[in-house]
TrEMBL record, chains A, B:
Domain MoaB/Mog: start-end pairs: 188-326
Keyword Magnesium set for record: yes
Native source organism of the sequence: Bacillus lumedeiriae
Catalysed reaction equations from the record: adenylyl-molybdopterin + molybdate = Mo-molybdopterin + AMP + H(+)
Keywords: Magnesium, Metal-binding, Molybdenum, Molybdenum cofactor biosynthesis, Transferase
Family per similarity comment: Belongs to the MoeA family.
Record protein name field: Molybdopterin molybdenumtransferase
Cited function: Catalyzes the insertion of molybdate into adenylated molybdopterin with the concomitant release of AMP.
Enzyme class, spelled out: transferase
Source organism superkingdom: Bacteria
Cited InterPro entries: MoaB/Mog-like_dom_sf, MoaB/Mog_dom, MoeA-like, MoeA_C_domain_IV, MoeA_C_domain_IV_sf, MoeA_linker/N, MoeA_linker/N_sf
PANTHER family: GEPHYRIN, MOLYBDOPTERIN BIOSYNTHESIS PROTEIN
Length: 421, 421
C-alpha cells in the first residue's frame, strides 16, 4: 500500500494558490451585476453632489438680504421663480428676491442660502408671490455643496470587491451602464462511489444517496463560481479517463468527491497518473479531509475531495474557494479569520489541525462559537447549521468553555489575505 | 400644507406586518433549491447511517474471534469475501473468518467489529487469502451504528429556513428530489423624480442619475424576492395612475422611490387617494426616512420610500424585507439584532430614532461597529461599506467610543422575531 506523506494545511494551500492561475474579466450590463465581483475600480466620474443642491423644500435666497430679519422685523422676499428637482433657474436675482426650490434641486448661482419651507409664511398680491422670514440666514446655510460627499476622480470601491446593493447604487450614480466584472470560473463536479444512489432513487441495502454533489454545487455558487454537474464517474479506469478528458474541455477546474483514498476502489490516483497530471499533494495533516488531493494538468486544477461529507465540505472551503476568489480578483481570497469564545467544552485532543463545523452567536456583541453539532466527521445534519469552521491547531489537548479560538467565517463576502501560520 | 403625524418605528413595522398577507409555496427541483427558503420541514426519511457501516478500510470480524490476539500470539483470519461501498455481503461467517470491507460499506450481519487495514498483515496460500492481527477488538469497535447520527423521523431543518449548502446535503440524503419552497414574491419598482437620468445618460445641469432603483433591485434580490423594474413613473397624475394600475396586475408588492413628501411635485399621496388605497402611515419618527409611506390596496402593499438614497435603503430593510421574509415562512422575519461596541464617538444628538449605515469588524471576537462613513443622509459612498444599521434611540444625546449599541445585521440569513421595543 502506498505511504503518503502529509503536509501542513498552510503548505497545501500555498501549493494550490501557486497553481491558481489568473482570472478573466467580462463586461456585463449593470442589471446583471449584483452579487458579482468587480474587475475594475469604481471611480467617481463627477463630484457628489454634482452641483450645490438644496437638501430641503424651501426658498433659495441671497443671505445678505436676510440680515435684518427678526421676530419683530420680518423681512419679505418676492418669489421670482420656482425650481423643481432636475430643472435649473437661469434668471438673475435682485435684492430681496427669492426662488422657490424643491429638495434635490440646484441652488441658483446668485443664491447662497436656503430657507426651509416651514420657517416661512407666504402671501400673494395679485399675481405676485411673496414669502416672509423672521430670522437671518448665513451664507452657506442649508446647502449641500458640490463635491462635499465625494470628489471627482476618487476611487470609491476597488477591483475584486463584492457588488452589494450599496455598490450597485454607486455604479448607477457614476454611469457604469456596463460593468467589468470577474468572469465566473466554471467548475465541474463528478461524484464517485458505487454506493451512491441518485436523489430520486429509493434507498437500497448498503447504499446511500449522493449528497456531496448537491452540497458542493451549492458551495460553488456561494463562492461565486458557476457549477456544472457531470454525474457519476464510471467505475472502470478507461471510461473514467475519457469522462475526465471530456470534462476538462468544458471546465476551468474539476472537483471529484470520493475515490482519492488508497482503497482498492479509489481510481483517482490512477487517473491523475494516466493523464499526466502533477499531484501537488495527496495528504494533508488535518481532520477531516486528510486524503484531500490536488493535481494540475495544463492550466486546469483537479480537486480530489474526500467522499466523507464533512471532509468534502471543509476541503472545498479551504482549497477550492480561495482559487475562485483569487480568479475573481479578490485581494483577500481566503476565508475571513476572526477570534471567538468557545460556548462549550471541546475536550477531544487534536493530533492534527482540526476544522470543526460550528455555529456562531453574536447576540451579546461577543462572537461565541458552538461546536454542539460536532459528533463524528460524517454527521450530515450539523452542516445545515454550520456558519464557521472552528480551527483547533494540531498538538492541542482540548479546549474549555470561554477559551478563545480561531474561526473561519463561511458566509462573509470579506476574506483574509492569509489566515494560516 | 398637510401636517403628518409621525408614528414610532415599532408601530409602523407592526402595521406593515399586519398587512403582510401570507406566502405561497411552489415545488421545485433540488437543483434549483440553493438560496431559497423551505416551505416544508426536512425530516429524516431514514436513520443515518442507514445501516451499521464501516468508517474505515479494513476487515469486518466477529470480535470474540480476536480475544486471544496479542503481540506474541497473533491471530490469523481467513478472508472469505470483500465488500465495496454499496455492495452487501450475504454469506455466513465461521470462526476466524473475516471480510475485507471498504470505507462506507455495510458491516456484515455476523460481524461486530472492524479492524483498520493498517493494523493487519496479509498473506495468501494458494488462492486463499489471510490476514493477521496482534491485538483483540471489542464488540462495536470501529462501527458507525445505524441511526447514531440521526434517527428516522426527526425534524432536521424547519420550514422557513434558508437553504444553504449543508441543507442541500440533507435534502439530497433524504431523497427530497423535489422540494417545497416559498414562492418568491414579485416586487415592482418605480422610480420618481424629474431630476433622474438613466445610467447610460450623460450628466446634465441640475440632474443626477437614478441610483435608487438599481440599489433597491439588488436589495430585493438579497432579501430573496424577485425584482421587476418598471421604469420611471410619469409626472402627470393620470398617466401615473394608469401605470400604477397596470403594475399592480403584475406584482405582489410595489415600491416607489421618491414622490412621497409634501412637496408640489410629490404625486404619490394623490395616487394612493385616487386608487382608494388605505394609507397605513405616511410619517415615521426616524432618520433617515421619516417620509416613508406604506399603503394597502386589496392584497397588495405599496411602499412609498424616500427618494434620498440612504432613506430609501433603510426604508427597504425595515419595512419591505420583513414582509418578504414573512411570506417566505420565516419565523424571524426582521433583521437580526445584536449588541456591538462603538468604534468611534458619535456625538450627534438623536431627537428621533436614527439608523446609521455602518460597517462592522469582528477580528478580535468582539463586534465593533464603525459609523465612519456617516456624514449626511445622502452620502452615497457609505452604502457600499454598509454591513449593519446601527440603531440609536430617539431622545439620546450622542454616544462615545466603547458604548454598547444595537445593530441590525444586513447580510445574515438569520433574523429576529421582533427587534423593536
Amino acid at each position: 500500500m502506498e505511504i503518503r506523506k502529509p503536509i501542513t494545511v498552510a503548505e497545501a494551500v500555498r501549493k494550490v494558490m501557486t497553481a491558481a492561475g489568473s482570472g478573466k474579466k467580462e463586461t456585463i450590463h449593470i442589471d446583471q451585476a449584483y452579487g458579482r465581483r468587480l474587475a475594475q475600480d469604481i471611480i467617481a466620474s463627477h463630484p457628489v453632489p454634482p452641483f450645490d443642491r438644496s437638501p430641503y423644500d424651501g426658498f433659495a435666497i441671497r443671505a445678505k438680504d436676510s440680515k435684518a430679519a427678526s421676530k419683530d422685523h420680518p423681512v419679505t422676499f418676492r418669489v421670482v421663480g420656482e425650481i423643481g428637482a432636475g430643472s435649473v433657474f437661469t434668471g438673475e436675482l435682485q435684492e430681496r428676491e427669492a426662488v422657490r426650490i424643491m429638495t434635490g434641486a440646484q441652488v441658483p448661482e446668485d443664491c447662497d442660502a436656503v430657507v426651509m419651507f416651514e420657517l416661512t409664511t407666504e402671501h400673494t398680491e395679485g399675481t405676485d408671490k411673496y414669502m416672509t422670514i423672521k430670522r437671518p440666514f448665513s451664507s452657506g446655510d442649508n446647502i449641500s455643496f458640490a463635491g462635499e460627499d465625494t470628489e471627482e476622480g476618487k476611487v470609491l470601491v476597488q477591483k475584486g470587491e463584492y457588488i452589494n446593493p450599496g455598490v450597485m447604487a454607486l455604479l448607477a450614480t457614476f454611469g457604469y451602464h456596463m460593468v467589468e466584472v470577474a468572469e465566473k470560473p466554471v467548475i465541474g463536479v463528478f461524484a464517485t462511489g458505487s454506493e451512491l444512489l441518485d436523489v430520486n432513487e429509493p434507498l437500497q441495502p448498503g447504499k446511500i444517496r449522493n449528497s456531496n454533489a448537491h452540497m458542493i454545487l451549492a458551495q460553488i455558487e456561494r463562492a461565486g463560481a458557476e457549477p456544472l454537474y457531470l454525474g457519476k464517474l464510471p467505475d472502470q479506469l478507461d471510461l473514467c479517463l475519457s469522462a475526465v478528458g471530456e470534462a476538462l474541455q468544458k471546465v476551468d477546474m474539476l472537483i471529484t468527491t470520493g475515490g482519492v483514498s488508497v482503497g482498492d476502489y479509489d481510481l483517482l490516483p490512477d487517473v491523475y497518473k494516466e493523464i499526466g497530471a502533477e499531484v501537488l499533494f495527496n495528504k494533508v495533516a488535518m481532520r477531516p479531509g486528510s486524503v484531500t488531493t490536488v493535481a494540475k494538468t495544463g492550466e486546469k486544477i483537479l480537486f480530489g475531495l474526500s467522499g466523507n461529507p464533512s471532509a468534502c465540505y471543509v476541503g472545498f472551503e479551504l482549497f477550492v474557494r480561495p482559487v475562485i476568489s483569487h480568479r475573481s480578483f479578490s485581494e483577500k481570497p481566503h476565508l475571513k479569520k476572526v477570534k471567538a469564545e468557545l460556548a462549550q467544552d471541546f475536550l477531544k485532543p487534536n493530533p492534527f489541525t482540526r476544522f470543526v463545523r460550528s455555529s456562531i452567536d453574536l447576540t451579546d456583541g461577543v462572537l461565541r462559537v458552538d461546536p454542539s453539532g460536532f459528533n463524528k466527521s460524517n454527521a450530515v445534519a450539523v452542516l445545515a447549521y454550520t456558519d464557521v469552521l472552528m480551527v483547533l491547531p494540531g498538538g492541542t489537548r482540548g479546549f474549555k468553555t470561554e477559551d478563545i479560538v480561531d474561526v473561519l467565517l463561511l458566509d462573509s463576502h470579506e476574506g483574509s489575505e492569509w489566515p494560516w501560520e
